[in-house]
Amino acid sequence: MDEEEVSPDHPRATSLRIRAKLTHGFKIGITSAFGLFAHGRGEAFDYLIGEETTENATRAIRAAAASFLLARHSVLSVNGNVAALVPQELVELSTITASKLEVNLYHRGGAREEAIADVLRKAGAKEILGIGKAASATIPEICSDRRRVDPKGILIADTVFVPLEDGDRTEALVKLGKTVITVDLNPLSRTAQMSTITIVDNVVRAMPLLVKAVKLLENEPEQTLQKIVRTFNNRQNLREAIELINTRLIRLAEQQSDTDEGGD
Ligand code: PTJ
Known about the structure:
By secondary structure, the protein is α/β, with parallel strands linked by helices. The protein has 11 helices and 8 strands.
């Protein structure tokens, strides 16, 4: 089913549209088959957090925006899922934060790299790092293709945005002393746990809000930005994100017992 074919009256229209974007991405060679599994996992967690941006995520988005504005060399790492879901927002974020866009895939392949670069170009990107031989540098301690990075991008970055990432690279980037910002619906994932700033939200909702937050903060003095970053506590925020799921599930369970009339 294409995105346009999803009936606006369907009770789960938003979720179906996201699925349609990814299956389209799969058909045109952007998203990997693994990306579809990853999305299923994300969907389940989105259900648990209530499919909305929480205050908890908003706090992380603000800290992420301030970090981007303080960075000297920031890079947005693009994989097959985010290229299918939020290409315009990635390009806009790269423009307003002067961040480089770098294609970095778990499963590399010339055709997929080119297809992703094409989508980003169509969304307005002028420069895209990490394509083919350009990914000539290596990050130590990573087994997957993700270890291959562009010497003009992730290798020398002080701040790296890795939405929907796998734990190994997050850990390696943090070990290299980089500020790592992620968007991950699962607050328990290794990436969520290892990152410097974790936005527990759907990337589809978080990206426009991140762009908005950067625009709101861009004229603030450096001291204000530094204070926002300093006072953000990722561990505490993650703890709260897990507690929010817990509280919500308890509330939903209680509602079940109140309304249980023994239906079929
Ligand atoms: O395109 P590639 O080859 O680089 O591969 C990309 C994937 C996503 C397949 C790769 O990075 C991967 O295998 O990721 P994982 O280890 O499956 O982790 C993906 C994480 O993203 C999981 O914790 C999911 O809960 C989460 N996730 C999935 N969809 C979304 C999401 N988080 C935010 N928004 C989503 N829409």
